[in-house]
Design goal:
single chain, alpha/beta, 4-stranded antiparallel β-sheet, about 450 residues, RNA-binding, 15 strands, Rossmann fold
Amino acid sequence: MTKNLNLFNTLSNKKEKFLPIDNSKVGMYVCGPTVYDFPHIGNARPLVVFDVLFRLLKKIYGKNKITYVRNITDIDDKIIESSKKNNKSINELTKTITKDFHQDCQYLNCQKPSFEPKATDHIKEMISMVTNLIKNKNAYENEKHVYFSVSSFNEYGKLSNKNSKQLVAGSRVEVSKYKKDPLDFVLWKPSEVSDPGWASPWGRGRPGWHLECSVMSEKFLGKKFDIHGGGLDLVFPHHENEIAQSRCANKTDKFANYWVHNGFVTFDKEKMSKSIGNIVFINKLRENINGQVIRLALLSSHYKQPLDWNERLIQESQNTLDKWYNQFEKIDSEELDDDVLNPLLEDLNTPEYISKLHLLYDESIKGNKSSKVKFLKACNLIGLLEEDKHLWKNFKKSKVKIDESFINQKIKDRNNARIKRDYKLADIIRKELENKGVVIEDKQDQTIWKYK
RNA sequence: GGCCACGUGGCGGAAUGGUUACGCAGAGGAUUGCAAAUCCUUCCAUCCCAGUUCGAUUCUGGGCGUGGCCUCCA
């Protein structure tokens, strides 16, 4: 094992050498969607970033050595709310969104995680974790509610770098009357008759938000595991609470060793929010942009940095891939050199990696065969140029209502005009096709066309 | 108020104690009937002030500015 991966760890606030608990395998848990609304471009970022990490880990440790778990949270107050608002049953809503989410993942060319557990399939385990917490005196029941007692865990705040005093001072949380301490968070709460609920020692109810990740990471990865990922906004309170629950319930000194968090996506420099109405939904992008374009755009800045989503970024990524596809070829697998991989090993430096791709492309078009192979393999590693060239070129076909024989006839007409030096007519025909969404390029011996 | 991150050319975006990637845009050229695409060449930058240092964009301190978290969020 010569390849050394360094990762920035939120827990230590430093870049650290990555050392798995067991050198022969790696466990990674990434917070997946709460299925209450269609995924947006902000959700796409962790999907793609951790997909790249997943691919990289497989490259380093071997294909079958990585266990990647990404949950689906299908019970939550937001879901209940959305279901009421949209007059859809919970089941219908979560099924619809989950299906859409899976289409997004496929569209973004994300490899399937090893496991994709659902919260509602793990209520039993959650109840048993809460029971454990009560037994360990880290939680208390009050009027059918169960709360985690933050003061019982003295390392609370370590991940998010907060102490309880600050939290109380800055707190805008509505303090429930059932809580002993304003910082305590809910593990179990009663459900209205009309709302989803499960029988429990504390009456019919449902789990608190953070519980599913604690329970499901343990089930698939163990009480301690290597990497836990998610968006930067999950650091507090979600991940902080996960740590508290898991470590207290399991009586362990550690939970996840490396915490990796991605930065936010803004839209035209503004925060995406429902009230502004500037949320970019992935299923909308699916309509006329190839998923690889989104991928490249999302990887164009370092994962921890903020990323601004805008038309220009998409266009640039589109143009780059158009160019790169000139070198497309299906190649049989070959080991990728360490020097190519290096930027990714330094905390997933995708911008530097992409700049290397540009250099490899340059060598490749000059006829350097080994550079070409490297280029293509390197693209594939981050999920680019895996799709056939034909599919890439014809992505917009379904959108453009135009018959291919019509295009070919027009090109024939135009070339006849060109032979007769009737350039006026030739230009008119070119313009006509362009207006229909077809662009013409005259090559040396032929005229090719593509969708705009 | 507390905590954190960031400030690099026209734009995006890496890296670095000494010659500052890469992409886009711009300029020039090749090619073309003209284009487009492609290829070649090329111009342009480290927020301000002080300190450490032979040397700072990089390290330290201060300032100014931007963003995030502290409430549901990727």
